[in-house]
Amino acid sequence: GKLALYVAAGGIAPHRVMPVVLDVGTNNEALRQDIDYVGVPAPRLEGREYFDMVDEFMEAVFERWPRVVVQFEDFETSKAIPLLAKYRSRYRCFNDDIQGTGCVTLAGVIAAARQAGKPLTDMSFLCAGAGSAGLGVCAQIVDGMVEDGMTREEAMKRFVICTSQGAIGKPDGTYGDPNHKRGLNADRAPWQNNAISDGMPMEEVVRTFEPTCLLGLAAQPAGLFTEEMVRHMAKVHKAPIVMPMSNPTSKAECTPTQAYEWSDGRAIVATGSPFEKVTLADGSIRIPSQCNNMYVFPGLGLAASVAGIAEITDGMLFAAAVACVDAMTPEEVSEGRTFPEISRIRQVSHAVACAVIEKAFAEGVGTRLKREEVPTRDVLEMVLRRKMYYPTYCPLVDPSQVSITRHR
C-alpha cells in the first residue's frame, strides 16, 4: 500500500520501489507447527539477535544500492525508537510511524493554529497515547516549536501525555502510590510533566492544564474524548483544536460531529480516519480533513531519492509540514479543512519535495544535486517535475513523420 502511494502520490516510478519484510520468527506455536506456514518456524528473535539482524540488512541494502531510501513501517515502539536513533544519521532512512505521523500531525497543528489565530509557540497539548505514534507526534511538534524559537525544555512543558492509567506526571501520591511511576520508562521519562500529578485522569487534566489541542493516538475503544473535555476547552479557548487520530473509526477518540456540537461549531478538527462533511446547526458546512501520512512521506521520499539527501533531519520534517500547510487554498481553509483536498496530492508532494531539498541545502546536508544545478525555486520545481513518474505512454515515433494510409 505505501509503495502504491509513493508511485501515485509522490511520482516515483513503480520499478524503483520494493517491499521488504524482515522475518524474525514467531512465538505462535500453532503457526510454527503448520506445514503451510511460509515464515521462519522459530521463536521470535529478541534483544541483541534482533538488532544484529536489522544491522545486517541495513549494511547489505546500502552496499547493494547506496542511494536507496529505507522507510521503516510497523516496528513496535521498543524497537522503532532505538533503531531510528541508531540509523538516522548513518543511513538515508526514516520511520513513517514516528516521523511521518509526527510530521503530518505537526502540519495539521500548524494549519489549525493559523485558523485559530495562534502562533505554534502559544499552543499546549494533551496527548492520549504513549506508543511510538504518540511519542513521535509529540517529539515532532516539539521540534517545530524549537524551530519557531522556543527552547526544547520550555516546549516539552507544553505537553501532558496520558496512558490508560492517567497522566505521566509528578508522583506525589494524589492518584495512587507515589513510588509507582505510572507508565514511566526510558522513552516516556522525558515527557513527565511535574505540573500535573501522576495518574491524573484526562478530564481532570483538561480542567487543570487547559490545553489548546487534544491529540488522540491511544488506539483504545471509541469515546476517549468526552463531552465534558471538549466543552471545557471551548469555554476557555475561542477555537479548540481536536484531533482524534486513532484508526479505525471504531477507535476514534470522538467524531467530528461530536467535536463540533460540543464546541458550538467552533472546534477545528482533523481525524485519523476519513469522515463525511458535517452540517452545523446554523446550516454551515465543515469538512474535517483526514490527517494522513500520505501528505508528507511521498514528498519526503521523492526529495531524498532525487536529490540523494544524506540524512532526513528534523528541520526537513518541519519544512515538509509547513509546505503541506502552505499548499492549502483559501477555499479549503474556509471549508474547515486542515489539509489540501486529496485530489491535489501530487501537487502537495511536489511542494513538500521542493521544501525538503531547499532545507537540505540550507542545513548543508550533502545531496547529489550541486547548488549551481538548482539556483532558484523555479529551476528546482522544474527538475522535480521532470523526475516525477507519470502513468502515460510516451510516443515511440514522431507523429509528424508518420503517414496515415486508409485501408478499405
Automatic annotation (TrEMBL):
Pfam families: malic, Malic_M
Gene Ontology cellular component terms for the protein in this record: mitochondrion
Keywords: Metal-binding, Oxidoreductase
Cofactor-binding details, from the entry: Divalent metal cations. Prefers magnesium or manganese.
Boundaries of every Malic enzyme N-terminal domain copy: 1-88
SUPFAM superfamilies from the UniProt entry: Aminoacid dehydrogenase-like, N-terminal domain, NAD(P)-binding Rossmann-fold domains
Any Gene Ontology biological process: malate metabolic process
UniProt-listed InterPro entries: Aminoacid_DH-like_N_sf, Malic_enzyme_CS, Malic_N_dom, Malic_N_dom_sf, Malic_NAD-bd, Malic_OxRdtase, NAD(P)-bd_dom_sf
Binding of a divalent metal cation, residues: E73, D74, D97
Molecular function terms, GO-annotated: malate dehydrogenase (decarboxylating) (NAD+) activity; metal ion binding; NAD binding
Residue span(s) of domain Malic enzyme NAD-binding: 98-361
UniProt: (S)-malate binding residues: N247, N292
Swiss-Prot/TrEMBL cofactor(s): Mn(2+); Mg(2+)
SMART domains with a match to the protein in the record: malic, Malic_M
Family the entry assigns: Belongs to the malic enzymes family.
Protein name stated in the entry: Malic enzyme
Species in which this protein is naturally found: Strombidinopsis acuminata
